[in-house]
């Protein structure tokens, strides 16, 4: 709780910029770009930023967990590109946490491009013939943390750079938090951290990206969001992907040792069922990944790394009115402003 | 095992037709068709057949379970139609079993029609304008049984009648079995029951519908089927939906009391994870249902009744070579002929 308050007061005091964490020494990271990509091109620069972010984030999550460590699995694909899969299983705090770096390029079918961005083929600025494929490059870091304790929220973030051979490119990404129980202070901290980071660019950035996340992380067939939001963007270059640890780690620290009942664990697993529904039915990254697999690009275990270790579906479960479960359901059904 | 053998020998003896079970007395079933539908129309006749089948199947599954009973939840929708939801939870044999009857009609968007049938809008025999909606009627019985014991397979069936206001109509359906461990005799029995029933119509029916199921129940992103097949059809009128109990109940009886380890239970839950992946990403009925919900037609809890109570995803799990888990994986990856 101390860290949360320290952080909030730092924001409230109007301090311009969070102190940068000490840079970690990168493991011997070998670029997965094409040999022909020049050293200073955006592809390689973005790759270097996320490779360092992956190290930083894994290090801080391992410190928080205090038990298990992340595996380090570099892989490459016969079709070019590859990634570094880092997964932590069965820790003290985390049931399953993953931070995956991937570099993919090749030719994508138009329905994959449509899955990759809201603007779909228009994004290319060119008219594609039916069936014409789109040469592309994509590089990203994505992460999901599923803690054991139902009082500890799940957190996801994704940060990616996308380029087509037609000369268009964009950054996209987002982060959101998925608690099973509502703690308003935690939500103020999480959203506050991003508001504070984005306000530097302009007062309309946070509200715009926050509203975008409320729309993006919505499960239409449930009429509810999968969690309590965050930010989502398809056009933005933040050079600060490590902000995720500022936003999330203090919440983890605060809640990881709270006691919980079996019934609360079951509720958490039901919310994980919603997480599975969102990811398999609507999530752009997952659907893009599954479509690309059919063309030989990508790695299934990394695409589905976001799924929780366990999930639960109970027929016609309705939280009791007035319960803690009903309280957060209201926030899932009616997105709120937290800051 | 006795029932399995009796059934197989009946087939082998060339007995023409299974004896009909005694008709059960229907609960006071009220038709959910439109008042304007004439008494002898196909809509009402089909509805009567599946209403009786629902009773029969629930009765036999309750007998097999010997513990819990099915709820009986009639529901209707403000937009017309409705259904009877019947779900059994936490029984002796079954973790979750459901048999759902539904009657839906209204106007569907073209992407819902595409989800409803392989032939999509061509099925209507008319050219639809972009955005033009398709008035339709659909009526079906669908069921999934998820047993507790990992040696007891999951079973699914679906049987439906579909009509558009352009004068086209068709029957569709299918059934498949999803074991976590391979028992070749059980597969011979299950597939044999359907072969025996279909051979009556012609020698090419079973092989055609069996191959169709192997294609339909395939999970492209895994390169494997969700189970060990069954039959799938989009054009067929079997008047014998109760065949499912002949095919399944003896397998349940044979395996429900086998001992199992915690590790075997975890494997079952991982296979249930595949079940969730198939249903949310590819299953035509589920996708059609979720799309129709957006138009106010259908009932979410009935559409997602097929999901297991619990499912599990383990990062990069690979069965040990030579293990029982590896044995059935081979059958998931390489569909076999069982009879």
Helix amount of chain A, in percent?
A: 25-40%
The backbone outline of chain A, from C-alpha atoms, is: globular
Give the N-terminus to C-terminus distance of chain A in angstroms.
18 Å
N to C succession of SSEs of chain A: HHEEEHEEEHHEEEHHHHEH
CATH topology of chain A: oxygen-dependent coproporphyrinogen oxidase
Number of helices of chain A: 10
Measured by DSSP, the beta-strand proportion of chain A falls in 15-25%
Query: What is the rounded Rg of chain A?
Result: 20 Å
Task: Summarize the topology.
Two copies of one chain form a homodimer.
Chain A: H1 2-12, H2 42-65, E1 73-76, E2 82-89, E3 94-108, H3 110-116, E4 134-147, E5 154-164, E6 169-178, H4 184-199, H5 205-216, E7 218-219, E8 224-225, E9 230-233, H6 243-255, H7 262-281, H8 284-293, H9 300-303, E10 310-312, H10 324-333
Antiparallel strand pairs in A: 1-2, 2-3, 3-4, 4-5, 5-6, 6-9, 7-8
Characterise this structure:
The first copy, chain A, has a single domain (29-333), classed as 3-Layer(aba) Sandwich (oxygen-dependent coproporphyrinogen oxidase). The first copy, chain A, has helices at 2-12, 42-65, 110-116, 184-199, 205-216, 243-255, 262-281, 284-293, 300-303, 324-333, and strands at residues 73-76, 82-89, 94-108, 134-147, 154-164, 169-178, 218-219, 224-225, 230-233, 310-312. The first copy, chain A, is built from ten helices and ten strands. Chain A is globular. By secondary structure, chain A is α+β, with helices and mostly antiparallel strands. Chain A has a seven-stranded antiparallel sheet with strand order 1-2-3-4-5-6-9. In chain A, a hairpin with a 4-residue loop joins strand 7 (218-219) and strand 8 (224-225). In chain A, helix 1 packs antiparallel against helix 6 (243-255), helix 3 (110-116) packs antiparallel against helix 8 and helix 4 packs antiparallel against helix 6. Chain A binds chain B through residues 87, 89, 96, 98, 220-222, 269, 273, 276-277, 280-281, 290, 293-294, 300-301, 303-305, 307-316, and chain B through 87, 89, 96, 98, 220-222, 269, 273, 276-277, 280-281, 290, 293-294, 300-301, 303-305, 307-316. Strand 10 (310-312) of chain A pairs antiparallel with strand 10 of chain B, so a sheet runs across the interface.
